[in-house]
Write a sequence for this structure.
């Protein structure tokens, strides 16, 4: 893979594989089993962390593919530390939480959190609890969205969905537990002079609540098979997708003690990027295969859902995604070189194929 190619869907990895990747060692087959002496870090030492956290922020950024990979590992490592062990009682629920969490998602939202912190002059490490919290919310929403009473899907992140493996009851609870864990983790975020920890908690609760993420899901559910206006479609996409993506950026900025002007610019960036991201998702649903997407392709059309390609056509949808990405990029004009990673991420999301 060329080094500047975004790796949007890394292969599924267990926390053990994640740690091994950082240690540059072979992987164990399952977490907590079959440990070999050569796999274990020396007593008293911790696995080496990816070096994104300690790298100065003003230097030229490395290729985006490497940055995404390193950031993803940093987030996986932190999530592994924050989430209860799979062996904690009752193990079924903790295994189910980890099954979905470490299934190989793109980690887009937490990467945006780290990149936003960097754009505001902080080291990514400052935003790690917020990054983990948004990924917990996102993964919970995917588990619940896949349930038979919602979108009823069998495949997610290239694997059978949670309810297919653990049954509906445990899948509901795994989602609930990740939703709760998000706020437990975020409560550990350090306050800055401008933003108390409660401000970060409120930010995430608002984006994940009944006025945004859940509102999007409600309208999506209620709209199936019914005519949807262009404005309603825009609102559904904003609520279901752009709100959490924008909150991911805002949380990174807040963890970096950003100014209110920086927060406003990143909000504008997130709203435009989030809408572009969902339009691209709609396009990929009709243009890519199930195998490539790691989730069932053609699902939206089969459910007669309102999507951009269904309402505006494929070409107009592509044009709109390009226009919104350009608009998003303009919001970063005052950030200079520190926002280079956000710019690269936006460009690569526009070109993604899954
Ligand atoms: C609150 C149950 C509930 C649902 C909220 C997020 C959501 C609404 C539904 C999930 C399905 C869906 C189509 C969401 C839109 C956002 C989106 C494109 C999610 C997929 O995000 P990716 O591509 O996924 O970043 P990975 O697996 O890579 O993390």
């Amino acid at each position: 893979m060329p080094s500047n190619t975004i790796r949007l869907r890394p292969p599924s990895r267990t926390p053990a594989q994640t740690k091994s990747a950082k240690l540059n060692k072979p992987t164990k087959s399952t977490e907590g089993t079959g440990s070999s002496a050569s796999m274990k870090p020396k007593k008293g030492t911790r696995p080496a962390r990816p070096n994104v956290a300690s790298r100065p922020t003003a230097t030229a950024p490395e290729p985006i593919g490497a940055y995404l990979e390193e950031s993803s590992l940093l987030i996986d490592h932190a999530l592994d530390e924050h989430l209860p062990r799979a062996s904690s009682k009752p193990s079924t629920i903790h295994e189910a939480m980890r099954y979905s969490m470490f299934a190989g998602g793109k980690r887009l939202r937490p990467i945006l959190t780290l990149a936003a912190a960097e754009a505001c002059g902080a080291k990514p490490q400052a935003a790690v609890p917020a990054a983990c919290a948004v990924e917990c919310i996102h993964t919970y929403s995917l588990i619940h969205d896949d349930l038979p009473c919602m979108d009823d899907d069998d495949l997610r992140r290239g694997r059978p969905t949670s309810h297919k493996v653990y049954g509906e009851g445990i899948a509901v609870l795994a989602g609930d537990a990740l939703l709760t864990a998000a706020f437990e983790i975020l409560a550990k975020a350090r306050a800055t002079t401008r933003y108390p920890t409660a401000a970060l908690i409120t930010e995430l609760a608002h984006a994940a609540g009944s006025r945004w993420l859940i509102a999007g899901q409600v309208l999506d559910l209620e709209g199936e098979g019914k005519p949807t206006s262009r404005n309603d479609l825009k609102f559904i996409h904003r609520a279901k997708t752009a709100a959490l993506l924008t909150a991911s950026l805002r949380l990174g900025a807040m963890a970096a003690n950003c100014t209110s002007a920086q927060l406003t610019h990143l909000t504008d960036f997130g709203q435009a990027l989030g809408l572009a991201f969902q339009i691209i998702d709609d396009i990929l649903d009709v243009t890519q295969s199930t195998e490539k997407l790691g989730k069932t392709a053609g699902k939206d059309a089969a459910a007669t859902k309102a999507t951009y390609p269904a309402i505006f056509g494929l070409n107009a949808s592509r044009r709109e995604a390009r226009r919104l990405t350009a608009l998003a990029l303009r919001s970063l004009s005052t950030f200079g070189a520190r926002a280079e990673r956000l710019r690269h991420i936006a460009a690569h999301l526009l070109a993604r194929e899954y």
